[in-house]
DNA sequence: TCCTGCTGTAAAAGAGTTGTGAACGACGCT
DNA sequence: AGCGTCGTTCACAACTCTTTTACAGCAGGA
């Protein structure tokens, strides 16, 4: 069972679905429980990178390369800061769901799960 | 009959399997009975080193060199401590299986076996 | 049996990592 | 210019991981 579904939605229009979250790559929009979620460019890009690799642990370095481009400077915290921002927006729109897991010393993993009892 | 299977799983994706244990080197994840097992960086590295040498007795010195890097300091107990931690996590996730055998005076050996009657 | 050396492991100590609010500059808009 | 937004950086608290230490239990040998 995969945690997120990805399917083509017409020519070039890909949509990632994970619980109440829907990421429309082509339209650069995100739906949370059907309502639109406003993300900045960086936030959206980060979410797209993570959500398209469900259940995969992605290193900070790889995330940085994919979103910011190039080699991550030592001691750079950009990835962490944006993961934090993203988590807050997701949690604000979709309570009782967790999306991004931290893998200490390595990176993050997009692993959607309901926190409902 | 080999104790652990190792096979390529697509380009660059290697997976070690030993009973209900699955070590996904590329994804840096471990599945125990299908469920994800959370390991720290050191624990994962140690497991990867041992599991990729099934039925081979590996000396402490070699383990240290492969996981910690460099020459093992005299009287260092790091390897023992981490083998202990790893055993506990494995046993907690996969009861009735034994994975790491001690070879007194020498080192350890990854030798998965079911303890079921 | 009494040493001695080795292993298992809990716990303390030390080192490193992550979450996050706040400050700051750049940019665009009115 | 004044304002709001965005991205980056910094600082600090809180937390997790790693290493070290200490001790108990074993096994083997004299």
Supply the key terms.
globular; about 30% strand; Arc Repressor Mutant, subunit A; about 30% helix; about 120 residues; five-stranded antiparallel sheet; alpha+beta; 8 strands; homodimer
Helix content of chain A: 25-40%
What structural category characterises the helix and strand content of chain A? alpha+beta
Largest interface, by Cβ-Cβ below 8 angstroms: which chains and how many residues each? A-B, 8 and 5 residues
**Helix and strand string of chain A, N-terminal first?**
EEEEEHEHHEE
CATH overall fold name of chain A: Arc Repressor Mutant, subunit A
Number of domains of chain A: 1
Q: Please count the helical segments of chain A.
A: 3
Count the strands of chain A?
Answer: 8
Give the CATH class of chain A. Answer: Mainly Alpha
Dominant shape of chain A: globular
Mean pLDDT of chain A: 90
* Beta-strand percent range of chain A: 25-35%
| Strand order of the biggest β-sheet of chain A | 1-2-3-4-5
Description:
Two copies of one chain form a homodimer. Chain A is α+β, with helices and mostly antiparallel strands and 117 residues long. Chain A has a single domain, classed as Arc Repressor Mutant, subunit A (Orthogonal Bundle). The first copy, chain A, is 30% helix and 32% strand. In chain A, the strands form two sheets. In chain A, strands 1-2-3-4-5 form a five-stranded antiparallel sheet, covered by helices on one side. A three-stranded antiparallel sheet of chain A has the order 6-8-7. In chain A, strand 4 and strand 5 form a beta hairpin. The interface between A and B is small, with 8 and 5 residues. Chain B binds a DNA duplex (30 and 30 nucleotides) through helix 1 and helix 3.
């Amino acid at each position: 069972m995969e945690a997120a579904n990805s399917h083509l939605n017409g020519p070039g229009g890909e949509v990632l679905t994970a619980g109440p979250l829907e990421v429309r790559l082509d339209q650069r929009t995100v739906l949370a429980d059907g309502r639109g979620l406003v993300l900045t460019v960086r936030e959206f890009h980060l979410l797209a990178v993570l959500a398209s690799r469900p259940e995969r642990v992605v290193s900070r370095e790889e995330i940085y390369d994919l979103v910011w481009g190039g080699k991550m400077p030592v001691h750079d915290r950009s990835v962490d800061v944006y993961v934090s921002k993203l988590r807050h927006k997701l949690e604000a729109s979709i309570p009782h769901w967790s999306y991004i897991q931290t893998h200490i010393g390595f990176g993050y993993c997009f692993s959607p799960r309901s926190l409902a009892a």
